[in-house]
Amino acid sequence: MPVLMFTLSALKDNGLTETESGKTIPTFVWLDRSGAWNWDKLPENVYPIPTATRPEYTTPNVNRNLMYNKTNAYIQELSEINPESKFNLYLNDYDTDQYLKMLVANGIPETNYTCTYISDGAFSYSIINNTFNVENATEKYNTMLEKYNTTKEQVKERKYYSYDSGFEVVGKDLRPYLLVLANEDPNVRWWFPRLRTEHIKLDKDTSNFVQNKIFSSGSTLVSPNIKEYGINTLLTAIQADETKVAELKALYRFNDDMFAEAKAQNKKAMMLLGSWAGNTPEANFVEYANFVKKYYGDEYVYYYKGHPNTPTAMYPDRAELLNEMGLIDLESTIAAELILFFFPDIYMSGYSSSTFTSLQNKEMACAFWGQTKAQAIAIANQNGDMFDVYISHPSAHGNKYDEFMTNPEHKYYIVEFNDTSKHEFAIYDSTANTITYYNADNEVVA
């Protein structure tokens, strides 16, 4: 999501800003998930970070510390060549401390830089909620502001910032300060794909904090430095420009024949949205995927889209499993939002993800995995109320459905429905691959 937002926002005009002389500012980039871009198809005026070698910035497992050090070295080099150099730094908001490390610690004049943090989805909302859901959020905010100002002055004086002790706020503890930075530091911006009052849940606070520091009224944001850049809006803005669309597809290695098999079979395409694979595989993935295939049947061709951080190509066992299950693997590093944009008629099932905010048609939202119906609807920023069915492990429901799981040697899952006019709930026996439907009186129904 951050890479796609950066691509569509910062690069949409082939350069970040036009100078008074009419020249565009060159943009130097490296990506934590390097496979998201085709590095041979960069837009005009966009370059890889020059202090790193191609193997360093294109390896699937980018050495983040190395790349941050090389970025810092380039900033130092440019500022030494020309002390009036201006910098616009774009960061995933998870890496909050890099702003102080690369701009403030290097002594760049405050008139000569900006730092834009780009939301990585649910993490950004959880930072606000987990930090300020206290009895007096305003008091906590003011204390944090004092600590941040002290830290910034320490960094200026010492000319470095690290995870070591010795700073008022050490690097690893700076993430909860994102709202403070965006509100109070004039050089800091914070971009969200979607920000609404319902995403902020500060039920413990009694200090009118939301109205004073986040939303002044309705969806109007207090700070001009906190902005919403909806991915669908940004994509729609370039849709009529065939050249821009072609550049975007080339940059992302986007394949127009991605769902060719479904077209060839004259069937619908369903994309199963996975989570992290590798050493911590998606919980109950096989069972959830088999349920979807059982429930929705052979009217669909089923595709798998993994998490960008764990591409299937890196995990041969996962590739073999997908093949055995009859699932067609999609390139994990392509943003799912892009897939939905270029193929708005595909159906989706999968684990909790902010990607679901890109679903525009309720008919396309099929099975939600790993959360109860109530949990899915309650999670901010993912359209949880749009889904057809919700499947979760029995443990999420306590003992409520124990009487319906009669064979101790079988594995069962609970299925809930958005529309309960036909079925109140169902029990999926993954061992036998059967679904039993029940009404509100706990009676079996067809």
Describe this protein's structure:
The protein is α/β, with parallel strands linked by helices. 32% of the residues lie in helices and 17% in strands. It has 15 helices and 18 strands. The strands form four sheets. A ten-stranded mixed sheet has the order 11-10-9-12-13-14-15-16-17-18. Strands 3-4-5-8 form a four-stranded parallel sheet. Helix 3 runs parallel beside helix 4 (98-104). The radius of gyration is 24 Å and the shape is globular. The model has no long low-confidence stretch (mean pLDDT 89).
Task: Set down the secondary structure blueprint.
Elements: H1 2-10, E1 27-29, E2 46-48, H2 54-58, H3 64-81, E3 87-92, H4 98-104, E4 113-118, H5 122-132, H6 137-158, H7 178-184, E5 188-192, H8 209-213, E6 215-217, E7 220-221, E8 226-228, H9 231-239, H10 242-251, H11 260-264, E9 268-273, H12 285-296, E10 300-305, H13 316-325, E11 328-330, H14 336-342, E12 347-351, E13 365-369, H15 373-378, E14 389-392, E15 412-417, E16 425-429, E17 434-438, E18 444-445
Parallel strand pairs: 1-2, 3-4, 4-5, 5-8, 9-10, 9-12, 10-11, 12-13, 13-14
Antiparallel strand pairs: 6-7, 14-15, 15-16, 16-17, 17-18
Helix pairs in contact: 3-4
- Overall pLDDT metric: 89
| Radius of gyration using CA atoms only | 24 Å
| Content of β-strand | 15-25%
Shape annotation: globular
Quick structural gist:
The chain has 446 residues and is α/β, with parallel strands linked by helices. It contains 15 helices and 18 strands. It has helices at residues 2-10, 54-58, 64-81, 98-104, 122-132, 137-158, 178-184, 209-213, 231-239, 242-251, 260-264, 285-296, 316-325, 336-342, 373-378; strands at 27-29, 46-48, 87-92, 113-118, 188-192, 215-217, 220-221, 226-228, 268-273, 300-305, 328-330, 347-351, 365-369, 389-392, 412-417, 425-429, 434-438, 444-445.
